[in-house]
Design brief:
Peroxisomal membrane protein 11B
């Protein structure tokens, strides 16, 4: 119990931890509003206010977040040329998303012209969606690369068991186990990131090109929770 409390404290000390918690509030309240809107309008309105308040507070809390994407664009580490090229539009899209999200927030609270909110939200969602597409592609390539490395380790192990590679020592076997464990942990994290990115991409498409599927409260609610809980899992202290 104490360990869980300690992890929760660490989780909520992170900016992303708070964001995922408030995002959970936002989309749970959206689903609650949709569910009881016809039967209990007064309570549904309260949930709607909670949803709007949570969404605006998340925008305020993300002030300056676009600098993370700018920093990643500047550094752009890694030796794999394909991944480095994918990182450019991915991080640029995310930077545009967070930057214009500031103006969306300011317009919606009335600090600047409220009529700008829709335009700023469109630009923000467009940049976000472009970024997510490239993040998803990069994660799938890294998952594929990890599977190849894992298969190579497995083939080496089979060769040893069949007596074809008798020179492999226990130290190498331990290194193989450690690497396999890291590959599998990385794969789970990347699958969580992919699930979150796909969910957020659908939410972005609802803003860019409104349609009955993406804009349905159930679709948005489920996608929002998938994104929030995937991020929760990735940010939870190990």
């Amino acid at each position: 119990m104490n360990d869980t409390v300690d992890k929760l404290v660490v989780f909520l000390a992170k900016r992303d931890g708070i964001d995922k918690l408030v995002k959970t509030f936002q989309y749970v309240s959206k689903l609650a509003n949709w569910q009881i809107e016809a039967t209990n309008p007064d309570l549904a309105k309260r949930f709607k206010n909670w949803e709007v308040s949570s969404g605006l507070s998340r925008k305020a809390f993300r002030t300056g977040r676009f600098l993370t994407g700018l920093n990643l664009l500047r550094r752009n580490p890694g030796s794999n040329l394909t991944l480095r090229l994918l990182a450019i539009p991915a991080n640029a899209g995310e930077m545009i998303y967070f930057f214009f999200d500031h103006f969306t927030w300011l317009a919606r609270i009335g600090t600047i012209n409220p009529e700008l909110a829709k335009k700023m939200s469109f630009i923000s969602a467009f940049g976000e969606s472009v970024g997510y597409v490239f993040f998803i592609i990069a994660d799938f390539l890294l998952i594929k690369e990890g599977i190849k490395r894992e298969r190579k380790i497995r083939r080496r192990k089979i060769s040893k068991e069949e007596g074809e590679d008798k020179d492999e020592d226990e130290e190498q076997e331990k290194r193989d186990k450690d690497e396999t464990k890291k590959i599998r942990i990385d794969r789970v994290m990347r699958l969580m990131a992919t699930a979150a990115n796909i969910a957020d991409l659908i939410i972005g498409l609802a803003e860019i090109e409104p349609n009955p599927f993406c804009n349905h409260a159930l679709t948005l609610g489920i996608c929002g929770l998938v994104s929030a809980w995937s991020g929760w899992y990735r940010n939870w202290p190990s």
